Extracellular protein
Amino acid sequence: MNYRRELSTILFLGLTLLLLALGVNAHAGVRSYTQKGVALRGGTATYFVNNTNYAIVPKYSYGSSNGYYESGTYQNQPYYMLATGGNFRRNAKTSYYLPVSYNSSGDMANPQSVAVSKSGQYAYVMYPGFSSGIVRYDLWKLNSLGVNTTNMAALRYGLKRRDPQIMAAVKFGPSLNVGHGQSLALNPKTNRLWFIRMDVVTRRPVFVEVSANTLAPIKEIKTTFSHSYSINNELAFDNNGNAYTYVKYRPSRRHAGSIVIFKGKIYAKSAKFKAIKQGIANGPGVQTQGMSYNPANNRLYLISDGVITSVPVSKLGHLKNKDVRTTRFGTNLEFEGLAFTSSGTGYIMTIRGAQLFTIENF
């Protein structure tokens, strides 16, 4: 018997068991915790603001932006997305045509969520199924290369051809299991990224914290959200670090589908949420496509295809019809997210092809 080897094995197994007992994932180097009990401690909504039903989209056949296929994906002119309905109308314009192909054709064509840094320098985009779970774009460097004005095809060309200037503006994170990938959000209080690892709907979400510098996960919190209620794959944080998620019930011919918003905190090893007792009678669109927070006006945004609804955080629980803003766009693009800078500049992300629209005073 090799006693030295035997002792090493015993020590290794002991250390592994100790790490597991402390909730640490020894293989991935990510702290992992399993929460006891449920995260939802406060039931569900009991009454609803009966906002006007601007938002129902009974038929939404996904299309592509102008010139996407005609240009071989190398679009060089902005696409305008005009508001055509709702009680709060704002238009949007393409600022960045995001990459479609990098290692293989179309491997970056399906981003699912976006977050931006408070200054607006960085856009963080989540890619399920891609070799990097999160890719960071330095928008200031890209702007200096005319990517947002006179040279809009440069980002797609530059990544495909490995152009040094373009590559210097793009940081690829490690491979990640991001689930559906629809919930990437920046906590402005900690400057850390979070997402919920899950499919489209679940009762057992995993909250994952990610470094905004390395784009690698720091820790994960496995939870049972509720034994009775599920959530959609949405997440947002306000200036105070409060976390928000929601569930949208399926629409009918007469109703757009109601929404229940949950507010809570994600702590070191657990998450706790309570339902906002007042729900929204008519949520936007059919499919949920994201959630966002605008630090400039303290509003929460609920994103669907072609439709975005927002509500003031300060009035959650006692909303009036006039507090609920809905913008309906004249488009058939598939929406994938919305994010804001600290000054209130918004970026709407869509696909076919992947792009970021700028929207102001939203």
